[in-house]
Write a structure and sequence with these properties.
Distance between the termini: 28 Å
Order of helices and strands: EEEEEHEEEEEEEEHE
CATH superfamily: Ribonuclease Z/Hydroxyacylglutathione hydrolase-like
Strand order of the largest sheet: 1-4-5-6-7-8-9
Number of domains: 1
Number of helices: 2
Shape: globular
Helix content: 10-25%
CATH class: Alpha Beta
Structural class: mainly beta
CATH architecture: 4-Layer Sandwich
Length: 188
């Protein structure tokens, strides 16, 4: 089973925005999720180093969507395959594939969850505790209930329900806040 870590907890401020950056170790797969806006590269690299991982060791990077707050630091991981909604990329190789159900590693798969943008994907991780999902369907545990930047607000709600219905779901890691356990009060 995979191990999940939050390298940088996201936040929303008046002038500063930080995206949540995740890390998954699944056997030989070392996966960084949404290396975007953070105060400095060390906000990502120092926690990785504490886990014994060098940037060149990272095998995969997953981008939930193409906003800068989730993509800006992708170039820190020069050896990694980079995954988005329709392909994975490495050096000059562009391999098209459907994101839905794509297995990044044995315990990590992608789901298509458009709504915030038409291209949003979620990263679903099987852990010893249960299923953990990295997604921008929620900005934080509190919401907002309505995504103010959603290109299709109705789809946000459809895909929130889909994620909340995943068997074994124990934790959601939102785009701009701390991980949380879903509850009846989780915005749907």
């Amino acid at each position: 089973m995979a191990d999940v870590h939050v390298l940088a907890e996201g936040y929303l401020g008046e002038e500063h925005v930080g995206g949540t950056v995740g890390f998954v170790r699944d056997g030989d797969a070392l996966i960084v999720i949404d290396p975007g806006l953070v105060a400095s590269p060390s906000a990502i690299l120092d926690p990785l180093a504490a886990l014994g991982v060098r940037p060149e060791d990272v095998t995969d990077v997953v981008i939930s969507h193409h906003h800068p707050d989730h993509t800006l630091k992708v170039a820190l991981f020069l050896n990694a395959r980079v995954h988005d909604h329709w392909a994975w990329y490495q050096d000059d190789l562009w391999t098209e594939r459907e994101a839905e159900g794509f297995q990044v590693s044995p315990g990590v798969r992608l789901l298509e969850v458009p709504g915030h943008t038409p291209q949003d994907i979620a990263t679903v991780v099987d852990t010893d505790e249960g299923v953990v999902v990295f997604t921008h369907l929620w900005w934080t545990a509190e919401g907002p209930a309505e995504d103010p930047l959603a290109t299709d607000p109705a789809l946000v709600h459809v895909h929130r329900e889909r994620v909340l219905a995943l068997p074994g779901l124990v934790r959601i890691v939102p785009g701009h806040g701390p991980a949380f356990e879903p509850s009846p009060s989780t915005p749907r």
